[in-house]
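chain below, 290 aa
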Amino acid sequence: MSTNRDELTTAAGKVPVAHRLALAVWPVDALTSRPVSTGIRLGLERPLGIPVVQQSNGLHQLRRTSPLESTYPAVVLTHGRGVPTGPGATVTIRIVDPQGRYAPRRLTVPLWVLGEVTGADKVSPSPYVPAVHRTIRPWLLPGPACTLPGGTSGLRLRIVRAGVPVRWVRAEVWDSAGQRIAWGHGDEHGQVTLVIDNLAASGPNPVPLAVRIYTPGGLPPSNPVLVRDPLADLPVETLPRAAKPTDPVVSNDDVTLGLAVPAGYRTEPQDAVINLTVGTLTHPSDIELH
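prediction:
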C-alpha cells in the first residue's frame, strides 16, 4: 500500500482517500433488533468552555453537540478537525429522539486513532482496522411515546420521590421465578416503558411482577445547568472496544445492549410489586421512592 495517507494503492491502481472513518454509529431498536432509520439525532459532544458547576454528585459542564454526518443506516464521524488523535482517545456522543419514541443515551466510545487506522498504509503487513471495528450498534430502549402493537404486555411507569419525577432511572422486571424478563431506561420526567414478551397467557392473570428501580445522583430539576443543557445529567456510559484489530468485535456486551446499570446508580431498597394483565399495557399509579 502507498505511504501517502491521501492515496492508496489497490488492485485497481492508485485511488484517492477522501476521508478516514473514525466512528460509525448504527442505532438499533431494542424491541425489533432492526436499525433505527429516521427521526433520531446523533451528535458529538464538545465542551463550551463555560465554567464547571460543582454538585454533590460530581462535576457538570455545559456542552454543545455537533451533528454527525448521516450515511443511512449509520451516521459517521471521520478523522479530522476536532477528533482526538492521542493514545486512549475517546469521544462522547448523544443519541436523542425528539419525539420520545426512544430513551436518550450518552456514550463514551474509545477510538482507533488516525495513526492506527493508517498504519497499514505505511507498514506491510500491518493489522488493518476493519470498518466493523470502528462501528458501534447501541440499542435504544422504548421511550414514553413509543408505538406498540395491540396485545403487547408491558408497563408504563412514572417514578417519583416526594412527588418530584426522578430523572434517568433504570428499571428491571422480575417474575415469581426470579427471572429478569424486562428492562427499561427512564427519561427526564421519570417515565419508563417496559415491554414484556415472554409471559404466557395461561395461568393466573393478572400476573404479579417485581419492579426493581435504580436511580442516579442526578441534578435537581431546577438546577441552572439543565436550563442550558437538559441532558447534562444524563449518565455517560463507556463502551468496550477490542484490544487489537484481530480480536473479535465487541458488540453484544451489557452496555451496548442497555442492560448495564451505570456507575454511581443506587439500587432502591424495596422492589415495587405490580399486577400486570397479560396482553395489555398497564399504567399503575406513580411509584413513590423513599
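Residues 7-140 form one domain. The chain is about 5% helix and 40% strand.
thats it, cya
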